[in-house]
Amino acid sequence: ASAMVLDSSFVSLDVVIAETAASAKQKLGESVAPAITLMPDMFIPMAVAAIRRSIQNQAEYDIRDVNPLGRCGELLVPALFGHADADEMIAPNHSLRLHEAYGGNSTMIKFEGRHNSPRSDFFLGSAVHFLKCILRPSGEAHPAEALVYHNASHVRGLMAGSARSSHRRTSGKGFRSHSMSHDGDQCFHIGRTAGNLALLANMCLECNPELRRQRAAERPEVEVEELRG
Q1: pLDDT in tens for each of the 229 residues of the chain?
Q2: Which of 207, 197, 151 lies closest to 172, judged by CA?
Q3: What secondary structure letter does DSSP report for 118?
Q4: Residue (of 206, 229, 214) closest to 110 by Cα position
Q5: 144 vs 130: CA distance, rounded Å
Q6: Which residue, 149, 155, 129, is CA-closest to 207?
Q7: Where does residue 60 fall: left (phi above 0), alpha (psi -120 to 50 degrees), or beta otherwise?
Q8: Contact of 159 with 173, CB cutoff 8 Å
Q9: Spatial distance between the Cα atoms of 192 and 148, rounded to a whole number of angstroms
Q10: 84-123 residues labelled b (16+ CB within 10 A) or e (exposed)
């Protein structure tokens, strides 16, 4: 079995460069040279093109080839996306777009923080539990094995059957659900079938009531240990 956990993903390198240039322009205008904010945005694509040519000459590769959004629809292994809600380097909508376009079953968790902030306990715990369920290091069977698809034709067949048998299917990739933890972390699940969505929710530390109670029961012990330290 295979699975992926992706933190602060981006849709494409050239988009990140363009957004970074636009952000730098805004910050310079606010702090150093207000006149810079009057510069037409048409210069940003020109700057990106210049950077692209420089990288092609020096590193011999095209930044437009670094395009996860263009290929993620072909990937079928289960994926867990994570992104800080105040990421100042890569906006959270990058991970959301990848999550929406992803070919297999996927979950996204949005947590408080910035690009280099410590990750929340909810996201870290979710990542560990997600990988444990999919990869099954103990060798024991787990229902999450049903989330793993091996070819696109199998997925298309399942989706066609789901569309005929259920009215809960949303437009786009499949079946969706969303929840928010007590601390403000948000989880978004998209399953290829209703059964896939149920498995993703059952693996979630927030959507599964039993796992949520376990987390709540462990918190006082953690706080006591921190006070003693």
Answers
A1: 689 999 999 999 989 988 988 887 777 666 666 655 656 676 778 888 988 999 999 999 899 999 999 999 999 999 999 999 999 999 999 999 999 999 999 999 999 999 999 999 999 999 999 999 999 877 778 889 889 887 766 555 555 444 433 334 444 467 999 999 878 899 999 998 999 999 999 999 999 999 999 888 887 654 444 434 4
A2: 197
A3: P
A4: 206
A5: 9
A6: 129
A7: left
A8: no
A9: 11
A10: beebeebbbebbbbbbbbbbbbbbbbbbbbeeeeebbbbb
How many helices and strands in the chain, by DSSP H and E?
Answer: 8, 5
40 DSSP assignment = -
Strand partners, 176: 190
- The verdict on pTM exceeding 0.70 is yes
Separation in Å, CA 1 to CA 101, 129, 144, 171: 22, 15, 10, 28
The residue behind tokens 């993620």 is 72
Bridging pattern class, strands 79-84 and 186-191: unpaired
Burial level of 124, CB count in 10 A (0-12/13-18/19+)?
Answer: middle
Which residues on neighbouring strands pair with residue 93, listed in sequence order? none
The whole-angstrom separation of Cα 3 and Cα 225 is 33
Alpha helices, H only, the chain: 13-31, 43-59, 68-71, 92-101, 121-135, 152-165, 194-203, 209-228
Strand partners, 4: 79
